[in-house]
Specification:
Elements (H helix, E strand, L loop, with lengths): L7 H29 L6 H13 L9 H4 L2 H12 L5 H32 L4 H26 L3 H29 L3 H11 L3 H11 L1 H15 L2 H15 L9 H15 L3 H13 L5 H24 L4 H5 L2 H25 L1
Helix pairs in contact: 1-2, 1-14, 2-14, 4-13, 4-14, 5-6, 5-16, 6-7, 6-11, 6-16, 7-9, 7-16, 8-9, 8-10, 8-16, 9-10, 11-12
Length: 348
């Protein structure tokens, strides 16, 4: 029997749906690049500001939303291509210390956030969602852990909007604070990658500081993101043990299979592409002109991605977020960022 060919008529409408939004992102990116020539602000931050200003004034037309929503994909494409500019020797040299720092900071963040959530009398599942988002990868962690602990939709909405508020604030506050403290590029990048919440804002803040800071911020953040699968498994176990009335637990084989599946599902697959390009570039596979073209491509992908990221910044999140989740996250960020900065300055 001949293999079934894909239904092109089903694919084309979806592509047609994406094209207006993609064109919209490209226009925003070009506007941001043009404005950046006249203001003392990096083009990536200008792209976020342009997208945010548009989304919070006239709004994004409905027909553009599906295409604009692909900005996460362009961020991942940019990160993968950026691998050609990351030194394998530098990664190997910093690898063990960076991994220890990531595991330590993630564990410390979870502990601080969970304790503060109890102190502020947050509902247990809401506190866990806030802790998950703060410790690993922002909204992605909130959504992943929500399914594992059977959180209410209201709790997911509260945790998500709280994370998004701090994503917007830290995107601009971190580079300013780094300049005020006079942090070295690598120090700032690793610090931002260890403590900021979501991948997009981390990358934008890092590259707003410098090229080197952006690379290290992305590497540190990707290392954190790899822990998402383990975090989901850990919360699943904790909440399963806390629940009552189910005495017939899964078999050992089923538990092992579920554990491995959760780890793989939580693993950001594009990291493999990033590491592959790091290795290929370090092996001298690419010529200098090819490296220059790839660098242009990842800069363009980032600019498009951050224009889309800006459209996701909604001022209405401030109204929808409760005071206590905001307080928990603010105190968590303050404590963790201070401790992490000391660790990074000492270790790197």
């Amino acid at each position: 029997m001949a293999p079934r060919r894909p239904d092109r008529s089903a694919l084309l409408p979806s592509l047609r749906d994406l094209l207006p939004g993609l064109a919209f992102l490209v226009v925003l990116a070009l506007v941001a690049r043009g404005l950046a020539a006249f203001v003392p602000v990096p083009a990536l931050l200008v792209a976020v500001l342009v997208g945010g200003a548009l989304a919070n004034t006239v709004g994004v037309p409905d027909r553009f939303e599906s295409g604009v929503g692909t900005y996460d994909l362009w961020l991942e494409v940019g990160i993968v291509l950026m691998g050609v500019r990351v030194s394998l020797d530098a990664l190997v040299e910093a690898g063990p210390r960076l991994l220890l720092a990531v595991v330590g900071v993630v564990g410390f963040t979870l502990a601080v956030a969970e304790l503060l959530a109890r102190g502020f009398d947050l509902q247990r599942r809401l506190g866990s969602l806030v802790a998950a988002g703060a410790s690993v990868c922002g909204v992605s962690a909130v959504v992943a852990v929500a399914g594992a602990i059977r959180a209410d939709e209201e709790h997911v909405a509260y945790a998500t909007s709280t994370i998004l508020v701090f994503d917007a604030l830290t995107l601009f506050a971190y580079p300013a604070l780094g300049q005020f403290l006079g942090l070295a590029d690598r120090t700032f990048g690793i610090w931002a990658g260890l403590t900021m919440f979501s991948t997009g804002p981390v990358t934008a803040a890092g590259f707003a500081y410098s090229e080197v800071a952006g690379q290290w911020a992305t590497v540190a953040k990707l290392t954190r993101n790899v822990l998402l699968g383990g975090l989901v498994v850990a919360y699943s176990v904790v909440y399963a043990e806390a629940s009552s009335g189910d005495e017939s637990g899964p078999t050992a084989a089923a538990s092992a299979s579920s554990f491995l599946r959760s780890l793989w599902d939580g693993f950001p697959k594009f990291v493999l592409g990033f590491l592959s390009l790091v290795a290929l570039a370090s092996a001298g596979v690419f010529t200098d002109p090819q490296l220059a073209r790839i660098e242009q491509a990842y800069r363009a992908a980032f600019l498009v991605a951050f224009a889309g990221l800006g459209t996701s910044v909604a001022l209405s999140d401030l109204r929808e977020t409760g005071v206590r989740p905001l307080a928990v996250l603010a105190l968590t960020l303050a404590v963790v960022s201070a401790v992490a900065l000391v660790v990074v300055r000492f270790a790197f």
